[in-house]
């Protein structure tokens, strides 16, 4: 993408992140040049009729970061404060994630610049359909496959798929993933991110007989956080703290997670939870004395401001980018082991891939089959990261993960004759 002066708009964050691993991965200058900018992007502005007859012009964009390994894949979020740099960073992370876990996909991300709370259901449907009309040549089952992300859901995916099928006059469920099961969504997709993270955590602690000796704190109690909390609770880990956007609940003897899920299902905030637990802030939760800290809400929650006070021995990044690069260095020097987002939360995109495979084959699997295949994929990626970490003598799992992911992309670029 170029600005009005014809200069290439690079993704600054992507460049910085690549710079950090450049020497350890042994990347040449031309390889670095090739990876530091997104391949393609499309920015659109389209008019929408509101329910009251007024017209609003909505901006949206889609960034396809790298497509050497296959069609690009990544979510579409509805958020009013997204910009090109942020979407590019997320598309870059998707490229690394799909590469790391061995999927035949590149990476992409999209965004519609709205606050969905300000629109009716009918308006959101019109926006979703208009987005696909604008992107119809840019996306496709063999080009670029969107999925849900922040503030988007299976219903929105269903509208988008339906619009695409109307335009092209044929059924095409493989154009999008995260669909409702009735329209070709995969069984097991809903819990896939939590399950993937759970399989990795289970593997890390496989030698610990008494799982109740492992204290866990989880920030965020949405789709990923609450499902993972329940899986860990059922596997006898001691989940001592959880939180939502307003507050957290802490009990050093362990929380009753099924009860907390019921509480949240009644749309109650944790700040109103009055049983067997102390109410803490989200900031307190980050600093708890636990074995395992799981940020599963927002990005940048651990920064240079609080990294020094983190007491957890290990962090599993379920949220995308919860640790800033500066905090990463502080945590590394303190010896905190970090399982990076591109590995820890890859369960979602792995099962999205399975969804597309099932769509293209028109043959659908049981939930058990999906879960077993997810476990195989994510654990083999984890084991490859362990090997890479040893062979590079790398300090962090992040460097080893980036290294593997980048090498696979670069090899595909070489085989295509691009390097
Ligand atoms: P969600 O919307 O279902 O839940 C988000 C949770 O975070 C909610 O409990 C919310 O109350 C809490 N939260 C919001 N603001 C907060 C704040 N300021 N402090 C603490 N908690 C806050 O979202 P999700 O699908 O569970 O995703 C959570 C994270 O995991 C996001 O970073 C997302 O990008 C990442 N992720 C999710 C998936 C997936 O398939 N769900 C896949 C990959 C990555």
Note the topology:
Blueprint (H helix, E strand, L loop, with lengths): L11 H14 L3 H7 L4 E10 L5 E12 L5 E7 L5 H17 L5 E7 L8 H15 L8 E5 L5 H15 L23 H13 L10 E5 L3 H12 L3 E6 L4 E3 L6 H9 L12 E3 L1 H5 L5 E4 L18 E3 L8 H9 L3 E3 L1 H4 L2 H15 L5 H26 L4 H19 L4
Parallel strand pairs: 3-4, 3-5, 6-7, 6-10, 10-11, 11-12
Antiparallel strand pairs: 1-2, 2-4, 7-8, 8-9
Helix pairs in contact: 3-14, 4-5, 6-7, 6-12, 6-13, 12-13, 13-14
Bound molecules: nicotinamide-adenine-dinucleotide (NAD).
How would you describe this structure to a colleague?
The model has no long low-confidence stretch (mean pLDDT 95). It is built from 14 helices and 12 strands. It is globular, with a radius of gyration of 21 Å. It is 43% helix and 16% strand. A 7-stranded mixed sheet has the order 9-8-7-6-10-11-12. It has a 5-stranded mixed sheet with strand order 1-2-4-3-5. The chain has 419 residues and is an alpha/beta fold. Among the domains are: 41-173, 3-Layer(aba) Sandwich (Rossmann fold); 192-344, NAD(P)-binding Rossmann-like Domain (Rossmann fold), CATH 3.40.50.720. The protein has helices spanning 12-25, 29-35, 84-100, 121-135, 154-168, 192-204, 223-234, 257-265, 282-286, 325-333, 341-344, 347-361, 367-392, 397-415, and strands at 40-49, 55-66, 72-78, 106-112, 144-148, 215-219, 238-243, 248-250, 278-280, 292-295, 314-316, 337-339. It binds nicotinamide-adenine-dinucleotide. Nicotinamide-adenine-dinucleotide binds at residues 193, 219-225, 243-245, 282, 296-298, 318-320, 345, 348.
């Amino acid at each position: 993408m170029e600005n009005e002066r014809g200069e290439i708009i690079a993704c600054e964050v992507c460049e910085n992140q690549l710079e950090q691993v450049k020497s350890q991965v042994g990347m040449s200058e031309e390889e670095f040049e090739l990876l530091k900018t997104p391949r393609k992007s499309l920015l659109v502005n389209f008019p929408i009729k509101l329910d009251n007859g007024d017209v609003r012009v909505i901006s949206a964009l889609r960034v396809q970061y790298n497509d050497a390994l296959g069609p690009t894949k990544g979510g579409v979020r509805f958020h009013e404060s997204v910009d090109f740099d942020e979407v590019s960073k997320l598309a870059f992370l998707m490229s690394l994630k799909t590469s790391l876990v061995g999927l035949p996909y590149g990476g992409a991300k999209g965004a519609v610049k709205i606050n969905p709370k300000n629109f009716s259901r009918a308006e959101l449907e019109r926006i979703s359909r208009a987005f696909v009309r604008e992107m119809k040549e840019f996306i496709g089952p063999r080009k670029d496959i969107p999925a849900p992300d922040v503030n988007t859901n299976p219903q929105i995916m269903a509208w988008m798929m339906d619009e695409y099928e109307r335009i092209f006059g044929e059924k095409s469920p493989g154009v999008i993933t995260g669909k409702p099961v009735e329209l070709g969504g995969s069984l097991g997709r809903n819990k896939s991110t939590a399950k993937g993270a759970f399989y990795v955590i289970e593997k890390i602690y496989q030698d610990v007989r008494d799982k109740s000796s492992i204290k866990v704190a989880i920030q965020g109690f949405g789709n990923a956080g609450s499902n993972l909390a329940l899986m860990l609770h059922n596997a006898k880990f001691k989940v001592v703290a959880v939180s939502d956007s307003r507050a957290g609940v802490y009990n050093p003897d362990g929380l009753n997670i099924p009860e907390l899920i019921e509480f949240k299902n009644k749309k109650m905030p944790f700040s109103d939870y009055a049983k067997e637990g102390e109410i803490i802030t989200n900031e307190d939760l980050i600093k708890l004395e636990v074995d395992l800290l799981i940020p599963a809400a927002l990005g940048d929650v651990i920064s240079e401001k609080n990294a020094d006070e983190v007491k957890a021995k290990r962090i599993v990044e379920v949220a995308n980018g919860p640790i800033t690069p500066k905090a990463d260095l502080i945590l590394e020097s303190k010896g905190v082991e970090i399982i990076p987002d591109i590995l820890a939360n890859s369960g979602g995109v792995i099962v999205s891939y399975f969804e597309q495979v099932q769509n293209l084959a028109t043959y659908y699997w049981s939930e058990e089959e999906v879960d077993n295949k997810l476990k195989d994929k994510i654990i083999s990626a984890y084991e490859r990261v362990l090997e890479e970490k040893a062979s590079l003598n790398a300090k962090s799992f992040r460097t080893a993960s980036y290294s593997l992911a980048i090498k696979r992309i670069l090899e595909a670029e070489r085989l295509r004759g691009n390097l």
